[in-house]
Amino acid sequence: MDNTIVISTPPHVKSKKTTRGIMIDVCIALAPAAIAGIVFFGLTALMVELVAVAACVATEFVWFFIANKGFAAKCKNAGKVCAGWWKQFDFTSVVTGLILALILPSTTKWYEILIGSIFSIAVVKMLFGGTGKNLVNPAAAGRGFMFLSFAITTYAACKIGAIGTVDSSFVNSDATNLSGLLPSADKVTPKSYLGVLDLFLGTGVKGCIGETCKAALLVGYVYLAVRQVVKWWQPLLFIAVFGLAAWLAGGFYYEKYTLDAALILPNILSGGVLFAAIFMFPDYVTSPKGVYGQIFYLCVSAVALAVLRYLTNLEVASFVILLMNLFVPLIDRAFIRKPFGYVKAKKEGK
């Protein structure tokens, strides 16, 4: 009798869902944002998306090919190794490449995308064992690496002009996409900022490819929630806590001290808050496993993002994700889940 014990990556739950199926669902959910990015920023956005996805998939393939001795004996087993790669291919590299592309500006140079994609897959994912074993989010790590290496802080303007009246210094400035939007001491009313409708649709907004059109992101969110890929409450909890924290951090510069939606929405609809809340913070591998741990993780992450964005006036979502990913093992230990099938013992009466 074969007594071999097979050990696989947790969680060990029987389900009809597979990693490949879930990743395909994520790709479908990302499609509206990817298409909107091409419409808003042109063919340069398409180039960024194609290069990032192709580089991520190619890096994973080359790593697998070398690890499985595809070059041995003058590539005699190359065909078998390629077939083995496709059999285990789960589209995680496609998701990483697509997410990385959507959190980059359309002006990113092709070689920067190539280097960032290789770093995301080879160093952050495959070096630690592949799918399910990476310590931090590969796309966020790649974005942070590119930010530090190439100083990517400028953003192309949307080809579709703003619907409402905007502050021209915000639209034409070469600074970050938050410099003319977030509350500051010298601007006590939100009247000169981009309107909420512009922020929601992405019209007239400077930003990354997939972060501008919030309507497209919400379509992806609804799809993921319906398919039960993400818990419906996770992005909503993050957004609610972030909105409140952002208002508390910067809202007191306004004349009114009321919890006005006009002051909260610009913070929520600017930068990559919605994108990160839907597609990055709920990541299976780099987020806590238990419900209470997830609630704590999302709340702390939302507050950290709101405070750091207010202090730096920069989009720091990727850095907050990386920082919080490092605390996930500690959060899992602090919020220990009840074992499956556990029943609390009843106390005996006196």
Question: Helices and strands in order, then pairings?
Answer:
Elements lengths: L18 H23 L1 H25 L4 H4 L2 H11 L3 H11 L7 H16 L12 H13 L17 H5 L23 H6 L12 H13 L6 H18 L10 H9 L3 H7 L11 H22 L4 H9 L2 H7 L16
Helix pairs in contact: 1-2, 1-5, 1-10, 2-5, 2-6, 5-6, 5-7, 6-7, 7-15, 10-13, 11-12, 11-13, 11-14, 14-15
The overall pLDDT, averaged over residues, is: 82
**Cα distance spanning the termini:** 51 Å
Q: What general outline do the C-alpha atoms trace? A: globular
Q: What percent of residues are in strands?
A: under 5%
Number of helices: 16
Radius of gyration from CA coordinates: 22 Å
What is the helix/strand order? HHHHHHHHHHHHHHHH
- Count of strand segments: 0
SS class: mainly alpha
**Low-confidence parts, pLDDT < 50 over ≥5 residues?**
167-177, 183-192, 252-259
Largest sheet: none
Secondary structure: helix percent: 55-70%
Structure description:
The chain has a domain at 19-150. 57% of the residues lie in helices and 0% in strands. It contains 16 helices and no strands. α1 (19-41) packs antiparallel against α10 (214-226), α2 runs parallel beside α6 and α11 (233-250) packs parallel to α14 (291-312). The termini are far apart.
Highlighted features:
mainly alpha, 350 residues
Concise summary:
By secondary structure, the chain is mainly α. Helices cover 57% and strands 0% of the residues.
